[in-house]
Amino acid sequence: MDKKQLYWLLISFYGAIHVNLFLKHIGISFPIYSIYIALAIVCFLLYKYINIEMKETMNLRIETIIWFVQSLVIVLNSQYSISYWSILYLLLFVFLEMGRITLMKETSLVLQENNDLYEQLQHYNELFQVVRSERHDFLKHIAAIQFIVDKGEGGEEAKRYLSQLVEGYAETNLSIKGENGAVASILHRIYKQAQEKNIDIMYDFDVPLSTLPMKEKHIVELIGNILSNSLEACEEFQIHDKKQAEMVVRMTKRSGFYLLSCKNSSMAIPESIVDFLFVKFGKSTKRGQNRGYGTKIIYKIVRDHQGYLDYTYKESSFYIKIKIPAIIKK
């Protein structure tokens, strides 16, 4: 039993005691087990449909204090309740849990933001080390070319050397050209991961992604989720279909709109999923607790910036096209 299941089990138990005492005070009697079963069903539905992240989202001391207060409320209700005070205890129980849920959600958001910032910092450092290393080696390459020329061995060898040198810098240049640090670090990370997994990847940006008319945080979330989903789909495609996977990301600006598109190899997606992929939360090709979060974030960012999102699956490829107006009405 995980922490979330234990939480709802305890809440149904505490709630059953409060409801039973309230019903007794107004002259209605039900077996305690029937009340508990009814509340257990309600809590099960809440467990299924209310998303609460229970993993270390609250300080243990705060958790202990809240449970102590809830236990104290039960004692007061059972020992000192008169007339209709039991309804006040029941309402106090409900308000305490509403406060707990709100606090857990806010704490979870703060922790998630901290994790995202830490991850971005790691990507910054990684990209910085790559650029620093290439800058450190640049003068050595220039000296090598100068040596080739001085030896009089002709321009062909120098051309070959330059070609290899430019090819080596292409990966970093594609990622950082015109982009701010956060976006560049994501582009570089995904590019590197794709190469490590033998996935063909291409960036084709007429304008930098960093010029999108939204906060840097939203650009990072948008492109990060699009690229991560594409990379995962390509990886699954290569494993199951034993074919070369590819992903192509393009960005242009036309007629007052930024046009962002991504094409990636993908396994066949069931119609029940693809028809509602960016419409209904939880529809995803992934399994587990985090399924559907990426598509939800993408859809929300596009919607909040008055954009348009279209997607389709055809011939082992998944296409997503996003239009964001250059001028967003407030």
Task: Tell me about this structure.
The chain is an alpha+beta fold. The chain has two domains: 3-113, no CATH class; 197-330, 2-Layer Sandwich (Heat Shock Protein 90), CATH 3.30.565.10. The protein has helices at residues 3-25, 32-49, 60-80, 85-150, 155-176, 181-196, 216-241, 271-274, 293-304, and strands at residues 200-205, 246-254, 257-265, 308-314, 317-325. A five-stranded mixed beta sheet has the order 1-2-3-5-4. The radius of gyration is 28 Å and the shape is elongated. The two termini are 47 Å apart.
List the helices and strands and how they pair.
Elements: H1 3-25, H2 32-49, H3 60-80, H4 85-150, H5 155-176, H6 181-196, E1 200-205, H7 216-241, E2 246-254, E3 257-265, H8 271-274, H9 293-304, E4 308-314, E5 317-325
Parallel strand pairs: 1-2
Antiparallel strand pairs: 2-3, 3-5, 4-5
Helix pairs in contact: 1-2, 1-3, 1-4, 3-4, 4-5, 4-6, 5-6, 6-7, 7-9
